[in-house]
Amino acid sequence: MSVRFESHDVDVLVIGAGGAGLRAAIEASAMGARVGVVCKSLLGKAHTVMAEGGVAAALAHVDPKDSWKVHFRDTMLGGKMLNHWRMAQLHAQEAPERVRELERWGAVFDRTGDGRILQRNFGGHSSPRLAHVGDRTGLEMIRTLQDHGVHQGLEVYMECTVSKLLLDGGRVIGAFAYWRETGRFVVFRAKSVVLATGGIGKAYKVTSNSWEYTGDGHALAYEAGAELIDMEFVQFHPTGMVWPPGVHGILVTEAVRGEGGVLRNSTGERFMERYDPKRMELSTRDMVARAIYTEVKEGRGSPHGGAFLDISHKPAELVKKKLPSMYHQFLELADVDITKGPMEVGPTTHYIMGGVRVDPDTGASTLPGLYAAGETSGGMHGANRLGGNSLSDLLVFGRRAGMGAAEAAKKIPGHAELDPAQIEAAEREMLAPFERRGGPSPYEVHAKLQETMQSLVGIFRVEADLRKAIDEIAALAREAERITVTGAREFNPGWHLARDLRSMLLCSEAVARSALLRKESRGGHARLDYPNPDPELGKKNSVARREGGAMSVTQAPLPEMPAELRAIVDADLELVKV
Amino acid sequence: MKEAVFHVYRGDAKGGALQEYKVKVEEGMVVLDAIHRIQAESAPDLAVRWNCKAAKCGSCSAEVNGKPKLMCKTRLDAMPLDRPVTVRPMRSFPVIKDLVSDVKWNYEVNKKIPAFTPKKDAEWRWKQEDIDRVQEFRKCIECFLCQNVCHVIREHDEKARFAGPRFFVRVAGLETHPMDSLNRTKLLKDSMGIGYCNITKCCTEVCPEDIHITDNAIIPLKERVVDDHYDPVIKVIRLVTGKK
């Protein structure tokens, strides 16, 4: 193997240090594996920190009739039955224990009157189910995992970005990365690799996602030969900030509605009555996002092009106690006191339901040696994710992927030899933007991609737009091949973006191609030209994979749900909730 | 549209200087927006850390017009724009490049703090009032602004003997947790050097999460240290009752 670069050998390499990555690393390490964690930011800054409202788990502390079955049913119905049934089942069954485990590791959740973990309402959940800490649940979770992990001897490589997975035949055996600080390259040899890099939101202009959310894991997996499923299902969170311009897209937690917030249009009407009279503001995210979008489009928007979200009818002290960060966020960034008046909110790109196809029990991808968990994996949430189901997803499947990866690593006696040609190719690819002259800047190409995805592959889609988007993405991919990066290799954000952009382009292509192929409307995917769900397509996953040099997207049958689980979904809620 | 002049530190461990950039000012704009605009328009290699852009992750700490701030919540309309806005990296840590400083020391300090260790066979029930204080400490977003302004670190560079306000807050969160069974006062006294703090409250003033670092974390911890290590009567009572 190449000796030119710093290199490290681990049993399990985890890429990403958000909730899923840390939970995977903790589990693998507890099983005796030597674990390396690579993350683009400092430890503890991953996107999980932005999760606000809570973690969904049928603890039944507030509603004693809640159970895994009800949670399973809610999740499947919220996902419009496109979820992998086994993932939804494991998730609902294991989430309570994962939350209790966090408490034993030091997390401090808000309490019920009798001293247990308190749970709040959220859209699509038929019982108050979200364990929470005010509106900073993600911070509590990531800090708990971080501090627990630190004492388990994880080797953490902070501010380090993986640019390529290294293969031996069809097996993943390592990764090529660079240190952001120095720009130097580093090579990892691993017996198994877990991808937990989060989502792809930065491909869109209006997003709640941070700079890290560039679809790295999705793209690494795809390039290595793994399958991505259901990439057309992007979640537009109904409530992002719309003003001022600098914070357009920043998340406004669903907990505002969970705590009793109401949505109104410019005429003062509680418009959700027209879209989902039964669930109103606590309808699923896909419904509420489309409702707000439609109100604005039809001329009933707020001054800055959103809807009014109002919690000011609740006592100011309660608002400050249960939604402290929303209170500060609006007061400091938008000059709005949410205890006194409404916020302006509108849809923002938040989450991707699609991702790396995995085996539910082990997190194994379709490629040997490669695992995925959390937002990077697909299947769990089907066509639409319920709020709160992401934090529970990353605990349940982070742990399972860590277990799967460590178990597999145990069976491998030693590290495979890395192929110097692959490493050289990875190096050339990274250095090329420095050697080119006169090409576009990465920021320019990124802005164009965001414009394309926002305007052509957004909340409502139509064939002509999607075709145009695919052409534009292809043109931008060619432009990206000419990008010129200036400056040195030390902490150079332009250079980092040039690499991240390649992942975003790939993911964008997968989203647009899968969206074109799915000629129906379902969950997060709404087609103006096919406004209804198609029962036949409801039995199919979209599958994107690399064939030759090009992306192929096909539709394949969903795994079949066992009859006893089907019965839970088909039964009336009252019969399940006993 | 109004224009603002920014003087941004450009340099690395070897040295550097303020460089001037002009930025168009939009309504409600924050310093981080301006830095991003400079990156996109004229200095693509300008190094800066950021993630959430909503004061939740604590990545974009810097010194704006000499004051320690999160750039994502420092509004331009709250500053005089008739003179240049200066943006420098945090002074108490070595510069890596431009606005990015080397904060690894903090992660090393953190590793020395014994983790949450729950009592055996206890019932996991407690009242909200019992954890309000713990939750205050757990609000910390690790922006390290408190570390940056603490004079024990900033003026005297006592990083080898002093852990800094951030980690007193962390220990306070553990020590006041109703289920934790350890006692960390010896650690506070010896390797964390809590005695060096002379409660000037600089840390509290800059905390973007409004944690009452000095009053609620450091002073009660100092009292515990005194009780455990300097007050023989209380020490005996604690030994007998087993209370920490």
Automatic annotation (TrEMBL), chain B:
Domain 2Fe-2S ferredoxin-type residues, every copy: 4-91
Q: Name one GO molecular function term.
A: oxidoreductase activity
- One GO-annotated biological process of the protein: respiratory electron transport chain
InterPro entries, sorted:
2Fe-2S_ferredoxin-like_sf, 2Fe-2S_ferredoxin-type, 2Fe2S_fd_BS, 4Fe4S_Fe-S-bd, Beta-grasp_dom_sf, Helical_ferredxn, SDH/FRD_Iron-Sulfur, Succ_DH/fum_Rdtase_Fe-S
- Tell me the cofactors it needs: [2Fe-2S] cluster; [4Fe-4S] cluster; [3Fe-4S] cluster
Keywords (alphabetical) are: 2Fe-2S, 4Fe-4S, Iron, Iron-sulfur, Metal-binding, Oxidoreductase
Keyword flag Transcription: no
State which pathway it belongs to: Carbohydrate metabolism; tricarboxylic acid cycle
| The keyword 4Fe-4S belongs to this UniProt entry's keyword annotation | yes
> What PROSITE patterns does this protein's entry cite?
2FE2S_FER_1 (PS00197), 2FE2S_FER_2 (PS51085)
Top-rank taxon of the source lineage equals: Bacteria
Which Pfam families does the entry mention? Fer2_3, Fer4_8
A GO cellular component term found in this entry reads: plasma membrane
Assigned protein family: Belongs to the succinate dehydrogenase/fumarate reductase iron-sulfur protein family.
Would you tell me the protein name for this molecule?
Succinate dehydrogenase/fumarate reductase iron-sulfur subunit
